[in-house]
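Fill-in record for Aspartyl protease.
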Amino acid sequence: MAALSVGTIAFAAPAADAGKREAVPFELRGGHIFVNAYVNGQGPYRFGFDTGASGVGRADVTLTHALSLPVVDSAANSDGVRVSRADVVKVHRLRVGSLERRSVRLLSRDYHQKGRSAATRFMGIIGRDFFENRLLTIDYRTRQITFSRGHLNPDAPGVVRYSPGFAIPLCFAKACFPAKVDTGSSRGLVLPESVATKVASGAPVRLGTVSRTNSSAALYRVQFDMPMRVSGVALDGGQALFVKPSTDTINIGSDFLKHYVLTIDQRRHLLRISRPTVGG
């Protein structure tokens, strides 16, 4: 297969089943999922795949300028602490595999590509509305995203109903909290400081400073040794992170999800995190 230009990923063609089920390969790098996407018939371009991103997606300003995407509006853009405004551009066609969305609007912002290595550059983000009418399965073990027309069974083990932002119950020994499933986060389990200090079995360890969309924060790690359950996964203990300044949101990111299979059914508002099938 011929090498692709910078900003793309060299993949074999995705496997399709009569247009009903399609497996699209992805790259997992630095805790982020990347896929090949086509914009207005051009590409492929390297896009992040982010269940934590609202709307259909995002376009980096580099792509906006390269394709002369028209600015049609502006919108607020928040990182949970600070809010800024960004341009909204119109895209006639956005495609991943054979799944295509037409006449969509994408938030366009500067993801600071000049400061990134070639291995981490990307031209945009696929958000959750892109696959809103498909059953989505992300298998971290096989590095495949599957789109299909199937459904989750609400009575099946591990299947839970989610609230906005793919928020599902995350339960410790004495309490449950809403936690957002966010494949766009490279972190694992990120708790509010108030929750992290309650479940911690020892003193927090400062790891450094991290950048947010519009701000920065100090990052800490804690150990916990009490049981925890989320969807179809039960653990006897583990690690969690929190930041200062803290938000009141719990995030389940790719460093946690990378051991499992994530399935989202937006038509029925159902979600499952499950262990990979042995031998599958």
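KEY FINDING: Confidence is low (pLDDT under 50) at residues 1-6, 12-19.
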